[in-house]
């Protein structure tokens, strides 16, 4: 029998909610409208993923980053063994895993993805980029799947991963300059740079011309194909989850259009979707769902 919520557990979930609200306004806007239990579970999953991010973002050098990841992995080992650390995130995640069939291997995949960033190697091709993106973002799709879908079949799992990959590629295309300046990383595969004749020093200098635009659009096309493909998946999700999921998809996809509107400046601008546009997207997706239900 499931344990009832206690005031302490409610507070744990509120802390997780504050984390997603602070760090991902787009996800919070989309998923805060879920039924209460499902929304809380999403917040707990996000809080864990944020903790994995922070393990390397708040460290000063590679040895400290790896030490932080090993500590997180040790805490996860204890969690899997039935002895979760006594902190708000772990307590909320424990409750979530009791209520939903969460795939623990995807929690480890998150840590592995962060480790890949510590030992960063620029992807050679799309296969390499998708491999990395599956760890840091496809895993999130898999973690959320049993919360949002009553029948998480093998096909659902594959497509949930692809949506996560699309969102990660979007992150990469939004943050080209930030990743270069702050982390010395270029996630655009070298094969795509070579194909379009784009030199690495052009990325390092933030030079925007037609060559760079061609590179950017090449990678954007991969994300947009994944976004388009996922839309037919929506009928397999809980009715209450369909609009929030489409919102997260479409708001994230809209980031690509924001970069385009800003002249492909992903070097000096923080491209984001306005609340007015988010509200318009909500209306558009509500109409889309009505059409497929009435069809």
Automatic annotation (TrEMBL):
Source species, domain of life: Bacteria
Top-level class of the enzyme under EC nomenclature: transferase
Pathway(s) served: Carotenoid biosynthesis; staphyloxanthin biosynthesis; staphyloxanthin from farnesyl diphosphate: step 1/5
Molecular function terms from GO: geranylgeranyl diphosphate synthase activity; squalene synthase [NAD(P)H] activity
SUPFAM superfamilies cross-referenced by the UniProt entry: Terpenoid synthases
Single GO biological process annotation from the record: carotenoid biosynthetic process
E.C. number(s) listed in UniProt: 2.5.1.96
InterPro entries: Isoprenoid_synthase_dom_sf, Squ/phyt_synthse, Squalene/phytoene_synthase_CS, Trans_IPPS_bact-type, Trans_IPPS_HH
Keywords, ordered alphabetically: Carotenoid biosynthesis, Transferase
CDD domains (UniProt xref): Trans_IPPS_HH
Catalyses which reaction(s): 2 (2E,6E)-farnesyl diphosphate = 15-cis-4,4'-diapophytoene + 2 diphosphate
Family listed: Belongs to the phytoene/squalene synthase family. CrtM subfamily.
Described function: Involved in the biosynthesis of the yellow-orange carotenoid staphyloxanthin, which plays a role in the virulence via its protective function against oxidative stress. Catalyzes the head-to-head condensation of two molecules of farnesyl diphosphate (FPP) into the colorless C(30) carotenoid 4,4'-diapophytoene (dehydrosqualene).
Protein name: 4,4'-diapophytoene synthase
